[in-house]
Amino acid sequence: MEDLNDEERELAAMVRDFADSVVAPQSYEADRTHTLSMDVVGQMGDLGLFGLPFPEEHGGQGGDYMALGIAIEALGRVDQSIAITLEAGVSLGAMPVFRFGTEAQKQELLPDLLAGRALAGFGLTEPEAGSDAGATRTTARLDGDEWVIDGSKQFITNSGTPITRFVTVTAVTGSEGGRKEISTIIVPNGTQGFTVEAPYDKVGWNASDTHPLTFDGVRVPAANLLGGRGSGFRNFLSILDEGRIAIAALSTGAAEGCLEASVDYAKSRTIFGSALSTRQNAQFTLARMRARVHTARLAWHHAARLRDEGRPFAEQAAIAKLVAGEAAMDNARDATQIFGGNGFMNEFPVARHYRDSKILEIGEGTTEVQLLVIARALGLAG
Questions:
Q1: Does the annotation mark 73 as catalytic?
Q2: Selection from 194, 142, 146, 147 nearest residue 166 by Cα
Q3: What is the pLDDT of residues 296-321, one digit of tens each?
Q4: Which of 126, 315, 361, 364 is catalytic?
Q5: What one-character DSSP code corresponds to residue 118?
Q6: Which of 185, 195, 180, 188 is nearest to 119 (CA)?
Q7: Cα 159–chain centre separation
Q8: What is the pLDDT of residues 228-246, one digit of tens each?
Q9: At CB < 8 A and 24+ separation, what contacts does 173-176 make?
Q10: What is d(CA 359, CA 131) in angstroms, rounded to the nearest whole number?
C-alpha cells in the first residue's frame, strides 16, 4: 500500500485490527447460521465506517471513496458478508440519497444511515431485469399525491435487517418516444403492501441479508421520488460505476485473505518430511496469488483516485472490478487446493472465500458487462 498517505494507512490499520479482533472470530458461526451480527454492524457504525465518504455536515467522516475502499478491503480479508454489508449500506443505501435526494430527504435519512443506526437497500434487479435493467417491469403511477407501486425485486441486500429503514426501487413511471421512463422511489419498510420475502438460501455470503421483495399496490407520498422523474436509470448507472470500485476493493481483500491464509498454512503444513512452502509448485502458486492481489489493488486504487479527483472513471472502475473479481475467484480456488482436504471444510476461511467469491464476478455488473463497458470505451460499439 505504498501509495497511501499517513491518514489512509492509519485507517487501514484500524479497520484491519477490527476485522481480525472482532469480525473474524464470529465469521464461521455467522456463516453457519446465516446470521448477520447486528452487534458487528453497530460497532462498524461506531467506528464511522458507514460515513466515510460523506461530508461532516451530513454526519459523515469527511473522507472519500478511497477511504471507503480501504475499509471494505480490510473487512473483505476475513468476512465478505460483513464487507458487503458495509459496501451496500454505503453505495446502494446512503449514496443515492446523498447524490440525488432533496435537502429534506437528506436531513431525514442520512444521519442514521451514516451512523450505522439504519440500513437501506436498492431495488433494481428483477426476475426478468438484471444486467438489462431497462427491462424493468415494476411500475409506479401517480394517484393524487401518492405513488402506487406494483411489481417485484430480487437479490436485494440489506433489505430485511432489524434496522433496515427503507429501500429505493426503480420503477417504470411512464414512457416517452417508445422508451420506458424509469424513476427511483423511496419505500419505507413496513409500508402496507410492501413485503420483504423470506431470505435466500445462497451458495455464499450467508451472513449477508438478502431478500426478494414484492410490491402490491404500495402507496407512498409523491415526495418520496428520489431524483428527477425519469432520471432513475441514468442515476443508478452512475451509482453502479462507484459501486464497482467498492466491489473491486472487497475482491482485493478476499484475494489477500486467501493469500495470507495459504502462506501461513504452507509454512506449517509438513508433507513428505518438509514444509509445503519449500515445494516449488506451492511457491509458484503463492507467487501468482500475490501478483493477483497486487494488480487488483493497483486497479481499484487508480479508479478510486480518479473518482475522488472528479475525473472520468467508468472504464477504470469496470477494469478494476473485472481484474479484482477474477483475482478473488482464482485465489480462492488456489487457496483451497493449497489447503487440500481442509480447504473443503467450512471452518476454514478459504472454504468460505471459495463459496463467497463467485458472486464477485456477478454482482453489481457481471464480468460480461465489465467487458462490454471496456469494449465500448475502445470505440467498439455493437
A1: no
A2: 194
A3: 999 999 999 999 999 999 999 999 99
A4: 364
A5: -
A6: 188
A7: 14
A8: 998 988 888 888 889 999 9
A9: 173/139, 173/140, 173/141, 173/142, 173/147, 173/229, 173/230, 173/232, 174/229, 174/230, 176/230
A10: 14
